[in-house]
Amino acid sequence: MAAKRVCSSALRLSGAGAARKSTGARSSRSFSTQHANWTTALQAKHTTSTTILPRIQATHPQRRFSTTPTPQHGHLDPPKPGEELKITFLDQTSQPHTFTVSAGDNLLDIAQANDLEMEGACGGSCACSTCHVIVEDEAYYEKMDEPDDDENDMLDLAFGLTETSRLGCQVKMTRGLDGVVVRLPSVTRNLQASDFKEK
Ligand code: FES
């Protein structure tokens, strides 16, 4: 009797095993179907890339790089019609150089945009005195905004300091400064604020 029960259990087990076997067969079939699908998809992708690439190469024989111009120090936009302002720089040999500029342009940018010798060692951050200019006419000097403490500190380091000395990077053109004349000193002293920090 017990043997019969074992036997029927074995039968039940073999039935379950068969079912599992049949499930395994199904999953192995579905795997091979999936595999076939992937292969087809990959082949399609490969075919697409091999057919598209020559077309791209034909229409774009050489790959081109484009760059966006970045504004650099000394870059100035031309003034709008009717808003032109004049400024004259006297160079180290007293030669005048007159330019038409816009309100808001600072003297360092104007000088550098026009290849005048103004070093601007600190990049216009009021930390050197290499953009020193001397305003020729005191009346124009009075029309400028007052120099702040930082500018006064840097001006103290400037070679050949005068009563109407300014740092070019700190002076912006305004309508009131139309016609101003500034002189470039014959020598500048390339000292920066960092030279005076404790090391
Ligand atoms: S560029 Fe350095 S202070 Fe003007």
From TrEMBL:
Cofactor(s), by name: [2Fe-2S] cluster
GO CC terms of this entry: mitochondrion
Boundaries of every 2Fe-2S ferredoxin-type domain copy: 85-188
Annotated CDD domains: fer2
Biased composition (Polar residues): 24-34
GO biological process: one example: P450-containing electron transport chain
Membrane-crossing residue ranges in chain numbering: none
Superkingdom of source: Eukaryota
Region (Disordered): 14-34, 57-82
Pfam families per UniProt: Fer2
Keywords: 2Fe-2S, Iron, Iron-sulfur, Metal-binding
KW Iron (keyword) present: yes
Name of the protein described by the UniProt record: Ferredoxin
Organism, scientific name: Dothidotthia symphoricarpi CBS 119687
